[in-house]
Amino acid sequence: xxxxxxxxxxxxxxxxxxxxxxxxxxxxxxxxxxxxxxxxxxxxxxxxxxxxxxxxxxxxxxxxxxxxxxxxxxxxxxxxxxxxxxxxxxxxxxxxxxxxxxxxxxxxxxxxxxxxxxxxxxxxx
Length: 125
Hints:
Blueprint: H1 32-42, H2 50-59, H3 67-76, H4 82-124
Helix pairs in contact: 1-3, 2-4
């Protein structure tokens, strides 16, 4: 059984006590080393150059994107030439950063709503 959360601090200690959660793994943003390995796995059968990979690493800052975002982008470009992927890099990065900003805003809104709920409960008590 796998459980995932973006907010470990919000989970009940009873839910994540030893015996229920035996191992924890941080699935963080992709490092350049991880991007390099993913690139090699996706494009091992294609004619790609080290220069293309270097340009991708230059275009995508370290620890900016999730492995899932990169996977989707690599799948989208599996049958295209490296130049197509490089040309698409600025749009892809902007879309991913915009998505992350929306997610952060939604998370902040949820936290604000929860704080308001807590304040309302305190008033009732």
